[in-house]
Amino acid sequence: MVRSVDTESVIGRGTLYVVATPIGNLSDITLRALDVLKTVDVIAAEDTRVTVRLLDRHGIAGKLVAVHEHNERRAAGRIIGMLAEGKSVAVVSDAGTPGIADPGAQVVAAARDAGYAVVPVPGPNAAAALLSVSGFGTSRFLFCGFLPSRAAERRRALAELAAQTATLVFYEAPHRVIECVTDICAAMGGDRDIVFGRELTKMHETVHRCRLDAAVAWLQTDENHQRGEFVLAVQGAPEMQQPDEADADATLGILLDELPLKQAVALAVRLTGGSRNVLYQRALALKEKSPDKGSAPA
Q1: How, if at all, do strands 206-211 and 141-146 pair?
Q2: Which of 6, 76, 83, 211 is most exposed by smallest CB count within 10 Å?
Q3: Per-residue pLDDT tens digits for 249-290
Q4: What is the tens place of the pLDDT at every residue in 114-126?
Q5: First to last CA, the chain
Q6: CA–CA distance, 289 with 14 (Å, rounded to integer)
């Protein structure tokens, strides 16, 4: 009997594999990931105790080394040494995809810089899981990871994100989720929607969508709503619609007859919803055509 060989699952010598693992449910792992974990010489794990549970579930006995946020730079050198010996190495995090809000990026960078092949073995990702059930248009989204833990830094980061029209995705720890959502609402207003993903793929999985101005109240209605690991998806800012040029010029023309240029533009932005920069340039063009318009100080 001839057995066909999937060339994509053949393990290469001196190759680093970046393997996504379940974010909760241990059944959420690809057949290819299992093949790789069975076959590689070494598995570099964020927490070997967590990875052992996954391997035991699937009957895999592998040689494990620890690679976590506190030793990753040093461990990367050790892994390069293994690759130099012709060994194959799989890097895994405790849950999800290594390098995405988890250790792994430094090991990957070191392997690439040293000229070794780095192969992705895709699979579970908490951000993608929540986006798939959010109901938001997700042709554009921005993964923001964990916000700063200090309130002032977090609020500055959110202020910079407030005008983003893409869906925003955050990770958050349970002990900070209320203050985080409070700051998101303050920065972005209460009329956008937020989707909570709590304990995704686990026994107590919760997915809840509501307006931002109702989000903190939902968290506080039940202590269980504040437990577990969180993924948050926040609706992006509405796209700014540019007014028709003729309508914009007509509005600006009337305002420039009565107001200084800056005030006329500011009011035109409020009336039309257009971009300040665009309307400012239109106002300058109108003034050049009719120098008497906007004669009051700008």
Answers
A1: unpaired
A2: 6
A3: 888 888 888 889 888 888 888 887 777 888 888 888 888 877
A4: 999 999 999 999 9
A5: 86
A6: 69
What SS3 class is residue 155?
A: helix
What fold does the segment set 13-124 form as a domain? Cobalt-precorrin-4 Transmethylase; domain 1 (3.40.1010)
Fold topology of 127-234: 3.30.950
SS3 content of the chain, % helix, strand, coil (to 5): 45, 15, 40
Q: What's the rounded Cα separation, in Å, for the pair 144 and 284?
A: 38
Look at residue 182 and give its three-state secondary structure. Answer: helix
For residue 3, what pLDDT is reported?
A: 34
The answer to pTM > 0.70 is: yes
* Selection from 119, 36, 37, 44 nearest residue 74 by Cα: 44
Distance CA(296)–CA(298), nearest Å, equals 6
Task: Read off the tokens for 212.
Answer: 């931002």
Strand partners for 91: 18, 44
Amino acid of residue 110: A
SS3 assignment, position 126: helix
- Chain segment 162-196, per-residue pLDDT in tens: 989 999 999 999 999 999 999 999 999 999 999 99
- Whether 296 has a pLDDT exceeding 50, the answer reads no
Ramachandran area for residue 189 (φ above 0: left; ψ -120 to 50: alpha; else beta) = left
pLDDT of residue 240: 63
Q: Is 141 helix (H, G, I), strand (E, B) or coil?
A: strand
Domain ranges of the chain: 13-124, 127-234, 245-289
Q: Residue 73 belongs to what H/E stretch? A: helix 72-84
CA dist., res. 243 & res. 157, Å (int): 30
